[in-house]
Amino acid sequence: MTAVVLGAAWGVWHVPLFFLNGSGQHAMGLLSLRGLLFFLSLIPLSFTYLWVFERLGGAVWSAILLHFAGNSASALLPQTSDAGALLQFGVTLLIALVLLAASRFARERSAGSARVVGDPVIAGDR
Fold first, then answer.
1. Is 49 within a domain?
2. Average of pLDDT values for 36-64?
3. For residue 6, which of 46, 39, 35, 64 has the smallest C-alpha distance?
4. What are the pLDDT digits (tens) for 68-100?
5. Separation between Cα atoms, residue 106 and residue 112, nearest integer Å
6. What is the domain extent for residue 67?
């Protein structure tokens, strides 16, 4: 839920750029498919930033570096079509889903290994 709230706030923060001539957001267009995908991608991006931030013990520099990397990638590989925006959104979503699955797997694995000595192992519990 935190990623959704942070992603929405991040979207509001970027709205003025859609009115700033010369910005990447202005080139996308606020009411276009590319604009919509930009806003939607902020939720999985927020999840990814939070995931890295937490794994590094709350290091703010991790978010700064991720944002720099994303902006650099956008500058080197700009979206020139709706297909490019869909591809970028898909990759962003896939990364967040892989991190979510890895987190859940690690959590379940650590919960399963925290058995008390003498605790019986139930069939199919491994």
1. yes
2. 93
3. 46
4. 999 898 888 888 899 999 999 999 999 999 999
5. 10
6. 2-110
